[in-house]
Amino acid sequence: MTETKFTCRWALLGLSNIAKTFLDDLTIPQDGTIQHIVSCVSTTSSKEKAQQWLAERSNLNPGGVKIYTTFEEMLQGGGFDVVYISTPHPLHYAHAKAAIKHRRHVLVEKPATMNKAQFETLSELAKSAGVVLMEAMWTRYLPVVQYLQEILPQIGKVKRVFSDLSVPIADEDMPRSSRLLDKQAGAGAMLDMGVYALTWVDLAFNGSPSTKVAFAQTIPYDSGKDLIDDINTVVLNSGEDGGQVAIVTTSMTLPGSTKHSDKLAVDKVAPSVRIEAENAQVSIPFPLIRPQELHIEWYNKDRLNGDGSEVRETVSKPVERGWGLWYQADVIAGEVQKRGASRGQGTGLVIGGDETVRVLGWMDTARILSGIVYDDALEAA
Ligand SMILES: NC(=O)C1=CN([C@@H]2O[C@H](COP(=O)(O)OP(=O)(O)OC[C@H]3O[C@@H](n4cnc5c(N)ncnc54)[C@H](OP(=O)(O)O)[C@@H]3O)[C@@H](O)[C@H]2O)C=CC1
Ligand SMILES: O=C1OC[C@@H](O)[C@H](O)[C@H]1O
């Protein structure tokens, strides 16, 4: 019996850097039951620039991609299934809200919103509009992370987690208007990178609702325009008795010697994540945003080597194609497929909503404790 392929049609808001990788990933030909095409894009820049941007991409929808210069027109125009929002973070809330109002399914880049309250509002709106909403926390859907979730019961109670995302993405050679240096565009390592490092805590503690931020500190970076949070340290406690701890660090300037373009290809000796549990320790190499293997040292008594030494295991689960942003796209497309042609008539759904709310809530608290403040207008829910 031949399986019917579902074609998920995408609308892109923002011809951003990450949209290039996303689009390239989506359109790699594949054998699965879901295929993706890009139907339209909306940009604040000119149609000519958008045409050029699209011309640099391969495997695009042969029927052509419609270009809009206002988001509203694209939302009204339709002809797509999901809108992918990759504008700077302070705009996510308003953009996702507008899309939901038009009863469109939404995949919104990380961090989904500036704070927990904004995401809770979006979740309520998505549920009542009968659409699917998802934060593009793509790391969660990678094969190695799925594997970690499977072996969590075997490694036993997690006692301590170290999680670090430090990538030198900010430097003085960048244009001052870059979203990485401009606080009005949401600049800061907590929102940009902490969201990933904290997601690993949530994974390691298996979504425990008892996890709370106990301490947070920031050493800011002077971008020449703004003081932005950079070297952040967040300590979290978890468990009914508080017997589990996580130490989370970020930086957008350390280590200073690595060039931005090579930032994610560095072979670092220190692991990015270390999960110490009753029966084993699991280490995840850099970069924690795109893990492809994990190292396990089993030290529970009934699993030791004959000479009493720890059993070491390396589990390799490479990303199967491209950069790996397509895994999350398949997840939301699968939900859209289940809903069939009815748009906004089914039950609304927030994929990974509890996870997003927990991590945003921790960032809210960590920001209060370490004095990371944005204009009220960016935070309004
Ligand atoms: N998942 C991942 O691995 C990554 C995720 N991200 C996330 O994606 C988002 C974008 O990051 P990045 O790609 O670096 O961003 P860029 O700065 O490259 O692009 C942002 C785009 O947003 C659009 N935009 C800017 N201002 C407005 C506005 N006022 N109204 C409408 N559109 C606007 C512009 O697109 P146009 O010119 O077409 O209008 C701009 O190019 C961030 O939230 C970031 O956290 C970023 C990197 C990696
Ligand atoms: O999502 C991201 O992943 C990689 C980082 O370099 C980038 O700043 C961030 O937005």
From TrEMBL:
Gene Ontology molecular function, alphabetical: D-xylose 1-dehydrogenase (NADP+) activity; nucleotide binding
Domain Gfo/Idh/MocA-like oxidoreductase N-terminal: 9-135
Database matches in Pfam families: GFO_IDH_MocA (PF01408), GFO_IDH_MocA_C3 (PF22725)
Catalytic activity: D-xylose + NADP(+) = D-xylono-1,5-lactone + NADPH + H(+)
Alphabetized UniProt keyword annotations: Oxidoreductase
Keyword flag Oxidoreductase: yes
Residue ranges annotated for the GFO/IDH/MocA-like oxidoreductase domain, each copy included: 154-258
Source organism, top-level taxon: Eukaryota
EC number: 1.1.1.179
Record bears the keyword Oxidoreductase: yes
Enzyme class: oxidoreductase
Membership in a protein family: Belongs to the Gfo/Idh/MocA family.
Official protein name in the record: D-xylose 1-dehydrogenase (NADP(+), D-xylono-1,5-lactone-forming)
